Amino acid sequence: MQGWALAINHQPRAGANCLGSKLSLWSARPVKRAIFSPIQVNAMTERPVPQKGILNIAPYVPGRSSAPGKKAAENIKLSANESPLGASPKAIEAVRAAAEKLEIYPEGSSRELRQALGEVHGIDPERIVVGAGSDEVLHLLAQTYIGDGDEAVMSQYGFMVYPIVTQAAGGTPVIAPETDYRADVDALLAAVTEKTRIVFLANPNNPTGTYLSADELDRLHAGLPSNVLLVIDSAYAEYVTAADYGVGISLVERADNVVMVRTFSKMGLAAARVGWLYGPEHLVDAVNRIRGPFNVSVLGQVAATAAVRDLAFTKALRAHNGQWRDWLTAKIASNRLRVLPSQGNFILVLFPETPGQTASDANAALLERGLVVREMGGYGISNGLRISIGSEDAMRAVADCLQTFMDEQ
């Protein structure tokens, strides 16, 4: 089985994709390696010219945050997988206290946060690197291990940031096809070549919500060459309820070529921008050499430190999410609508291609009620809508809207 390459298309196409843009970000197609159309730059240009390949990167555009024509109070945002319970009260209090000392630089290595993470997760704080969101951590990993001519392997419906950080570092994204919206271990391994430097895996995956078990994760790692880095992106780990799930910590501690990436964004601190990695000592040393010394703000550090220790809030968050994720899945699932089984704080709903019943039609009906969800065209899932788990009222409103929408067709 060959890997799929990433095809970048900067030509507008009819209909907006899930990112609220008419720019086609990418599509997976069965060719061996990515082919990019070069940007033509006049050799005699009198302005600064970006490095080769930068202008071929389709920028990440977040999902919409409001419905057209609706006032702020009329919108229910379910498009960004944010915490349905807000932030930890302890994190909020910590931010308020720290706001009195905004003139002071943050501690350069996020030492107190690393210590708190070590205590809660039972890991070595010296093997943790903290970044301004997991996005920065992913960028740092790509900059450290990918260069011109190198490749990074990722699954077909994996997180959109993986191709961006790969190309920004001069590498080529290679897409491994999924099986029924789920990462395929054999396909990922088949896409690895002598040029591969990183394999990115979101587990659970965004936007599908599907996951690989701990045993499957071990099999993936066992099939990789020792010089290929396996990046396990466990951004949604706090929401997982599956008994056979493995977050990646034990694999990191057994191997020299595995790193686990986490975030606080899904735990109520999206505005604070705090992410982290846990990896082998040699990787931490390399990444820290290019990490900015004050890359995480004081407010981010204190909020995350308080949040990670607020185990009661994390438990409540998981319980609320599990209850309403399962409830919404059962309510929406029918012969005409398929809901993928999710381990995240969202669900992916697949709609028919029948005119009047499409994902685009359903999205319009939801927006009319001020229910803002995420279209999936940019991921190549044009028949899908990703719906974040929110409050009880929000979930009941979504279920009622979609039931009415399908009944009227």
From TrEMBL:
One of its GO terms (biological process) is L-histidine biosynthetic process. It comes from Pelagibacterium luteolum. This is Histidinol-phosphate aminotransferase. Residues 75-400 form the Aminotransferase class I/classII large domain. Belongs to the class-II pyridoxal-phosphate-dependent aminotransferase family. Histidinol-phosphate aminotransferase subfamily. Pathway: Amino-acid biosynthesis; L-histidine biosynthesis; L-histidine from 5-phospho-alpha-D-ribose 1-diphosphate: step 7/9. CDD domains: AAT_like (cd00609). It catalyses: L-histidinol phosphate + 2-oxoglutarate = 3-(imidazol-4-yl)-2-oxopropyl phosphate + L-glutamate. Keywords: Amino-acid biosynthesis, Aminotransferase, Histidine biosynthesis, Pyridoxal phosphate, Transferase. NCBIfam families: hisC. The modification N6-(pyridoxal phosphate)lysine is found at K266. It comes from the Bacteria. Homodimer. InterPro entries: Aminotransferase_I/II_large (IPR004839), HisP_aminotrans (IPR005861), HistidinolP_aminotransfase (IPR050106), PyrdxlP-dep_Trfase (IPR015424), PyrdxlP-dep_Trfase_major (IPR015421), PyrdxlP-dep_Trfase_small (IPR015422). GO terms for molecular function: histidinol-phosphate transaminase activity; pyridoxal phosphate binding. Pfam families: Aminotran_1_2. Its EC number is 2.6.1.9. Its cofactor is pyridoxal 5'-phosphate. HAMAP family: HisC_aminotrans_2.
